[in-house]
Sequence to fold (274 residues):
Amino acid sequence: MKIGELSRATGTNIETIRYYERIGLLKAPARTSANYRAYDDLHRTRLAFVRHSRELGFSIEEVRSLLDLVDNPERECSQADQIATRHLAKVEKKIDQLITLRGELSQIIGRCRGGVAADCRVIESLADHTMCHRDHV
Amino acid sequence: MKIGELSRATGTNIETIRYYERIGLLKAPARTSANYRAYDDLHRTRLAFVRHSRELGFSIEEVRSLLDLVDNPERECSQADQIATRHLAKVEKKIDQLITLRGELSQIIGRCRGGVAADCRVIESLADHTMCHRDHV
DNA sequence: TCTACACCCTGTAGCAACTACAGGGTCAAG
DNA sequence: CTTGACCCTGTAGTTGCTACAGGGTGTAGA
Fold:
């Protein structure tokens, strides 16, 4: 499988595949006589794992740790669970933050009654943080 | 006001203030004889506006457009409203995505029953996207 | 007066996680 | 024999900062 096929098979940008190889997330594949990368099914599986993990929001370093567990099946599963649990906590925190944000934003937008910028309630709200009812990060 | 005072007054990192000046978000202030930046209250207000906008998740370019409206008070307020409304839509989309993500993650985590990585359901789920009930980005 | 220390300056490099070239080589079809 | 699709390496750009390195300035105490 050449890099273009792997790219199509996994929905991953070619540059991204090469990037993953460069940072050591994917092992370097064999090369053809023309120096083209030649991938096999194991590479495809591994890349799919990486992509899926990334889609779920795991960082590259987290993916690296997860791949480490894949490569060492005798190790404790609890490590994977810990990574996932911590990530879930981050996601939940982010959701909370964004919901707060959404509240602030709709309040600010709701104040707009048209006219010129000089009288703009949106701009006024942005200038004056004390108008906010809640804190935001 | 020297940069350190402005930094404390607005809760902004000194490096960040200089960065904002470099990218033209803040106007370059006057300098003292020792070549120190000398800020006044207008600078403080402007930086507070920038910080608040950034806290609300507006991009630097969006902040730039908003500042443009501040500097041209005769312009239509609807531009500010448009920027904010578009941003709100982005925030709402992100919330939806994260909620989907949260669902996927808790499902994956819920499957963990301990043991070694070879039998790990978390890793299994990451390897096999087809187990997901919903799509994720 | 010396010196310690907090503060300021510029310029550049680093972070995450890619993405986008530039400038070349390879290979099969028409 | 040329066109076009594909591949290669290496480097620079993206966003929004943050972190130095290697200097200068200003003031308080010994």
Remarks:
- The CA atoms of residues 65 and 71 of chain A lie 10 Å apart.
- Residues 78-110 of chain A form the longest helix (33 residues).
